[in-house]
Here is the input.
Amino acid sequence: MKLNQPILQMHDITKTFPGVTALKSVNFELGPGEVHALVGENGAGKSTLIKILSGAIPKTSGDIFISGNLVEIENPSEAQFLGIAVIYQELMLAPALSAGENILLGRFPRRLKFFIDRKTMFGTARKLTSLLGLNVDLAVPVQLLTIAQQQMIEVAKALSLDARIIVMDEPSAVLTPHELHRLFQVIADLKRQGVSFIYISHRLEEIFRIADRVTVLRDGEVQGTRLISEVNRNQIITMMVGREIQASKNATKKTSRNDIILEVKNLQSEFIPMPIGFKLYRGEILGIAGLVGAGRTELVRAIFGADQKSSGEIFIDGKPVAINSPSDAVKHGLALVPEDRKGQGLLSDLAVFENMTITNLKKLTI
Here is the structure.
């Protein structure tokens, strides 16, 4: 791929926190109409670099150039003014506002200078969601939409900014294959219009599908930038972890089909109209697949006691158990990592150690 004058250049970006160097002399550039993947293990520095670009945190040292011009990005408003939009893995929506209001938040069209032109606002929002193939009622509070739909609202919000640079941080985490395919189509269309993307993902198959180049970070330092056509999966993984990864000889070890640890029979709830049943064997990973709205989340919530079941039985180690609340589930050795980590999985006002021990306080307190 032959690059023209980069639309973005980040030179020798360093970021230090007390006792920690998060980024060390990082160089990164992005060409016009390019999808540049940024990969690395958790803690490699990807989010820190993006937060500096978005104006969320200041850099300690280094320079940023937009279209060859030196810029100082001191806050998110300045980043937006420069044509930079960021879609964070952590959704940044106003839950009580409608989906349409969230898309144009802070930039509502006006009539008579003082009144919000809601007809124009929803019309513009509808054009953007149609572009993404998203069919939702834009007048409902965004908190009533599924996490996947909220993710697509974030994408529409970024598109509404007419951004030249769009950063996507793990956008596929909650999207179905159909939604992801549509997202990739939108990215391809915008590329042809000269829009550039920084795409962050742990799913390397996505990187090879849409990226032009890939930059690998490890421990806050760049390990290399490669054309995606000149690198393979193992080379990227080696740069990410600093060593070659050998396939485990036990990777294909079969699970015993004699030891059933969990069995669900004829489970139904308000959100699961048809009875569902399955068996989970000890040491097995059982996948539950389906489109958004098919009932995957509702099924595990009913098993965990977060939603009340209307009928059905649950057996653990062959014995029937009554799970009417999450605390009942925890007592029986079940754990749930919910789809909405922030809203349902964490107590954001409490410390990390308090969140880690919240379900086990009786054993840790006197």
User: Anything to note?
Assistant: The first strand starts at residue 8 and ends at 17.
